[in-house]
Amino acid sequence: MSSSLKLSRRNFLQSAGSAILGSGLATTLGNFAANAANTSGYKALVCLFFKGGIDCHDTLFPYDTTSYNRYTELRPSLLSDYEAQPGGSTRLRSELLELSPLNSSDFGSRAFALPPELSGLHSLFENGNAAIVPNVGPLLRPMNRTLYNDDINARPLRLFSHNDQQSTWMGLAPEGQRFGWGGRFADAVQASNANVNNTFTAISVSGNDLFLSGENAFQFQINNGGALTIRDLDQPSLLGAGRNSAILPALLTEHFTGNRNGDIFERDVATITGRAIDSNQLFNEAIGTTSPFTVSFPDTSLGKNLRVIAETLGARNTLAVNRQVFYVATGGFDTHSNQAGDLPRLQRSFDEAISAFYTATVELGIENDVTLFTASDFGRTLIINGDGTDHGWGGHHFVVGGAVNGRRILGDVPPFDVDHDQDVGRGRLIPTTSIEQFAAPLGSWFGLTNDETIAALPRLPSFGAIPNII
After folding, report:
1. Dihedral sign from CA coordinates of 400, 411, 37, 30
2. What average pLDDT score do residues 175-204 get?
């Protein structure tokens, strides 16, 4: 078989398995070199992606008086909009929740805070179960303002573009990239035989997105009700009430087992469809047997999606997995206008969902084995456009879990000002921590060797110290 045919067939298999049927299925096409260092026990990574680009300057606040006063000088109309909100402004210094990081000496006289809408994350931070990694974003090499202005080739491609920067965060390259680093992590643990059933290694609750796309690992898609199903398989309209669920699978199975003379693509579709039916049934039965949580998840899309991920964690033994990577996205963060009206609501929503999710991992007794981290297209401009903010670059992110090096701000927080060395204009932050530096300690904790980590994050050697996130 020619290499071009193999590639074409593999692409067909991946698109068929995830887009047509809604279930990604692990295959044995190709090999990932080396075995992971340690796949004993259970560990899970959960990527929570804020689509649209969350305003980092309206999430992590300056709290020392000098920095806060300068912040108010740079955002007067936006802060006036906050004052006009029902109940008054939650951005007054007196309303902010001061952080007390264990490494506060790293920042001299500077201090930081979260808005009251993030009270759950504030509590997780103060209790040592969350950390903040500031100013993370795509880089080709360490960069400052001078290099940015002097060498256009040193800049990452297509900065400030939603689609391209989402792709770069998930796959380290602009739109058109085939594999995400979450999928590469899944490739590594599958090659190490970490899971008896590879079907459930990479699970997306937000559709077929780049982050979990691996060379060998396929993403298994679910929604907040469980595994996706093949349309009409359980519907009564085709064959009569109560008959589809028994008749159609039997007909399909007969075709699968009897179809030995069809062409290669027909056999692949038959194989994928058959496995999808079995996998969906196994998944739904597994999460259906998990005990209800004491914690109440918020009745929001994100709350429901994190709840089903927590239920999946509870079914880990039934699903026969030791390593899992999850992906969930939530949108609405492109706040060019009405930021004071929209962002607090969004922050409260993800704060409540993350807090409930962490509590659920405690109930399951695996809070030290599950790490949730946030990501987003980019941060936003410190300089406002009136009642909103525009596309930025670096942004501040949370890492949550019992194994996290918590109650710390792990990296540089640029001044809440303009015209400094990490500002390319209007308060767009040049990242001081690359995506690779952010991802590498997560991969190491997950069980990847150094070689596997670099295979998943090939530009990692271009950067310096890796933050001690976990």
Report:
1. positive
2. 96
Output the six-digit token pair for 353: 């969902």
Mean pLDDT of 381-386: 98
* CA 45 – CA 230 distance, rounded (Å): 28
97 SS3 class: strand
Question: What is the C-alpha separation between 380 and 427, in angstroms, rounded?
Answer: 8
Residue for token pair 């759950």: 120
On average, the pLDDT of the chain sits at 88
Let me know: does 65 contact 403? Beta carbons within 8 Å: no
Edge-to-edge strands, sheet with 97-98: 61-62, 112-114, 97-98
- What pLDDT does 444 receive? 97
Q: Please check the confidence at residue 28 and state whether its pLDDT lies above 90.
A: no
Handedness of CA 208, 222, 19, 17 (dihedral sign): positive
Contact 190, 201 (CB under 8 A): yes
End-to-end CA distance of the chain: 45
| Partners of 44 in beta bridges | 324, 370
63-93 tens-digit pLDDT: 999 999 999 999 999 999 999 999 999 999 9
Residues 432, 412: contact at Cβ < 8 Å? yes
Please say whether the dihedral angle defined by the alpha carbons of residues 71, 77, 79 and 80, taken in this order, is positive or negative: positive
Residue 108 has pLDDT above 90, yes or no: yes
Strand ranges across the sheet with 323-330: 226-227, 219-223, 202-204, 323-330, 43-50, 370-376, 395-400, 130-137, 433-434
Burial of 341 (0-12, 13-18, 19+ CB in 10 A): middle
| Backbone phi, psi, residue 221, to 5° | -95, 135
Do the beta carbons of residue 327 and residue 49 sit within 8 Å?
yes
Contact 330, 51 (CB under 8 A): yes
Distance CA 374, CA 47 (A): 6
Report in angstroms the alpha-carbon separations of 40 from 299, 362, 468: 35, 20, 22
What is the band of 277 on the pLDDT scale with cuts at 50, 70, 90?
Answer: confident
User: Under the phi-then-psi rule, with left for phi > 0, alpha for psi from -120 to 50, and beta for the rest, what region is 135?
Assistant: left
Average pLDDT over residues 459-466: 95
Q: What is the pLDDT of residues 321-335, one digit of tens each?
A: 999 999 999 999 999
Distances (CA, A) of 340 to 94, 112, 382: 17, 20, 14
Q: Is the pLDDT of residue 362 over 70?
A: yes
